């Protein structure tokens, strides 16, 4: 119901829970298939996946049977308790079910980040742990003393990273966006340079190390999973990361590239199915309160013609 949206909107604190999942199923966006909340999204082909907990077991099993070794980054407070999830990561799996000519079943490892979907939570330490672990796992950066242990049982298996939270909307999207920002084209390839993606191109100067700003990184991720929407606290952490990476604007790379107001417009339009012009009008009428603006759109207070 619409009351569920008001209580737990998909852009605010606590929006990774099942009530939003049920609400979004009942109100599909014109931009996004409603079953995306039950599916993973491939952010970087064969390398980086983002999605909800309910889809992790199927994806990890499929990757392992293809001989791929996945690192699963779990962005949730609670430890895993789904039997299929635990079996997919820790189980031996049936070697006779291998696919794509795999010579062996790829081993999987789990990195658990205890992240509440709360705007007051400081996600910076979680981002740092995930970036170090993923960099080591994919061979994108040297391992340091602070890198969480993600030792694997074979060096021959191709590797992938699966990042998830409850719904694949805020916590996991924050981590994936940070990975794209930190590793840039080393992780995402030339697709990150697509001129159709809004936001400054990755800086080539040594100070940035190939990193990319928040606007381009988040737009890159959103283009592949339209429902992603880090909460405002997490966005603040990502803006701080941009400055730390020197991936923003200005001579020192610390000028923000991200416009929070424009992000609210895109989020509201994506969730409600309204045009960006209508979303902007609704936000103006609601004093930039996204929850209230959504109510204005769904109740017809603000339309394309008002």
TrEMBL record:
Molecular function terms from GO: phosphoprotein phosphatase activity
GO BP, sorted A to Z: negative regulation of MAPK cascade
Keywords: Hydrolase, Protein phosphatase
Tyrosine specific protein phosphatases domain location: 155-182
GO cellular component: cytoplasm
Keyword Hydrolase: yes
Name this polypeptide is given: Tyrosine specific protein phosphatases domain-containing protein
UniProt source species: Neobodo designis
Phylogenetic lineage: Eukaryota, Discoba, Euglenozoa, Kinetoplastea, Metakinetoplastina
